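Worked example 4.2. Below are the chains of a multi-component assembly; read each line carefully before continuing.
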Amino acid sequence: MSKFRIISLALVIAVALGSFGMALAQEATELTLWVFVDRHGLYMQSQAERWNEAHPDRAINLTYEQIDYTQMHDNLLAALLVGMGAPDLADVEISKFATFTKGDEMFYPLNDVIDPYRADIIETRLAPYTANGNNYGIDYHLGAFIMYYNTALLNEVGVDVNSLKTWDDYIAAGLEVTRDTDGDGEIDVHMMSVETTGPFSARGPMLMLGGGAYNANGEVILESEANIEALQFLQDLVHMHGIARPATGGHHHTPEHFIDLVEGRIASFYMPQWYMTRYPDNMASQLADVAVIRPMPVWEEGGYTSTMGGGTGTVITKQIDPDKVALAAEFLAFAKLTYEANVALWTDLGFDPMRLDVYDDDALLIAMDDFSGEVPFVHIKEAIASVAPEYTGAFYPEITTIMTTTMLYDLIENQMSPEEVLSNAAEELRAMGADF
Amino acid sequence: MLEILRMPRRLTGSLLNHKKVVPLVFLAPFLIVFLIFKVYPVILAVIMSFQDFQGIKSQDWVGLANYENVFELARFGQALTNTTVYTVGTLLVLVPLPLILAVLLDSGRVVASTVFRVLIFLPALTSLVVAGTVFRLILAKDGFLNLFLEGALGMDRLRWLEVSELALPSLILIATWRWTGMNILYFNSGLVNIPQELYESAAIDGASPWQMFLRITLPMLRPTTFFVVVLSIIGGYQVFVEPFILYAGGAGPGDGGLTLALLIYRTAFTSFNFGTAAAMGVVLALIIFVFSLIQFRFFGVLGGED
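Applying the procedure described above to all two chains together yields the following structure tokens:
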């Protein structure tokens, strides 16, 4: 073999090896994600495509798996417990998060990648996924509490939905709206439905009046004056004013409650913003001509106009390949905290973004057929003028369980006093080992 | 086993044909699965019940602290009471009802009894997730059950799914729907084994059908009844899926449907406190064990009949 041939062969081999190496470098990094809501998975994949366009040299290939809510969290706990089988990224629901903070650290802190965005977002939205000063998860939305009205039921008795600014206005209107329409002695239309086996009807007022489960210092404040006032308010709506009743089936996600809404038995209720997706998904848009959203009435001028409800934080589990952590964390911030992502959260997912500067973007002013052709974002923007923060802690899941099993049931159905149900809850928490 | 090991080498070729090896080979798949997925977890649970096992960290021995925890929790008492009421409720329904239906189906006076048998047995094969949804609709305020009670008995509509007092009756109703067919099957196999001559000679002696039922059928069915009662008690105390599905992972209004198994699950997977959850599991196992022992005595399975 001549010298020339050897050199050419070496060259060919070198070129082949080189291009192979480059192909390797450009190979997308595989990332796996567990979700319990399919649209979360689809959203993250669309964000992965956006990431790949912006960072072709650090491409990722995100695959997600959707598993039923309870099953997904149980599987994740089990996988983290035994040390294998967990995905790289996972969605953890707000009331499940604290369960994962017990014992050794299970997720990677995200503080560094969140830092550049802190000034742009409602930072307290990170609190529910924070433990020991570390932010472990980033939510999909703000979850602002808003009112959902059926304008037909209000118009029948001459109530203008835009006139309901304070709770006094609301209660006065409620006395008109709540009535027996067929004369059989039973009330057919109620102004409001409240949850007795769901947390939201209580949690909204508790937080907006300055209470809640935990304060900013991580102390349990169940028995606070604000919580007593909030629960008294709720009980009065049902029993003193008589304008509210328990949601059929106990909470706002039962098929029976959806039937009540469609049949026109409930004129209004408050839930977080994401409940808007239930109108097309669970009620087949049957209320499209009469449903509207508005900010919640206020207790007094200058008080909170809304608070946050529910939520799901995406986390990076400790079982991810350590080489992928930095990339995964950057992608997570990119997918949840960048300006474009927050616009997409509304336009793609229908969730209220936690980044404040996008609220002035015209791209979000979309008229929606499901809400009487109005532009709901105008009202969401008005609602988030002043958002009460929600703080959580180690016993947040237990507090939610107590609220949705006995506390609200005793308050509304058994008419026990707010002081009594709150002190019962506190006592039970202490028996479980909570120290406060 | 030792004999086998001592066997000369040339014999190992025919080892698989050996009288003592063959049964083991056939049993092996079951035994392996049983040891790994049943015995090992049970042992582990007992060990865990003496450890501080919260979250992912090294486990410390804490003696009986978990057991003390269990009895301090107000919900444990509530769950124990609920589960006991549920078990007694299912016993009161799921022993007499299937017994009577089995005798009727066996009597030859029912037209197309095979069709009935299949229909009554079907619920045991139905997916409970689907059943849970259907029962939510049946038990709803405007649901089938209320409409039936209103129309047939003139009763007021009840809030089956919304008040805690009706949670256990709702669960017993589901249990009745689900297990009646299964228990009929057990009683039926018991009935088939009663010699026909007994009835014939009783008839010659002039016994009425009622007397035959009391004096022949019931006593002869004793082993079957014992079996059904023990199974019902074990099943009753372990009830988990029915409330879990009916109340979408919760335990119903006011925790009216909170059972021991649900509380164990909640303690393990909501509080992530496996130690206390394991202790509850051990207590539940002891309760079932004691009740079963009492049953054995009551039905005279231990120590012969007197």
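Take a moment to check your reading of the output against the notes. The mean pLDDT of chain B is 87. DSSP finds 15 helices and two strands in chain B.
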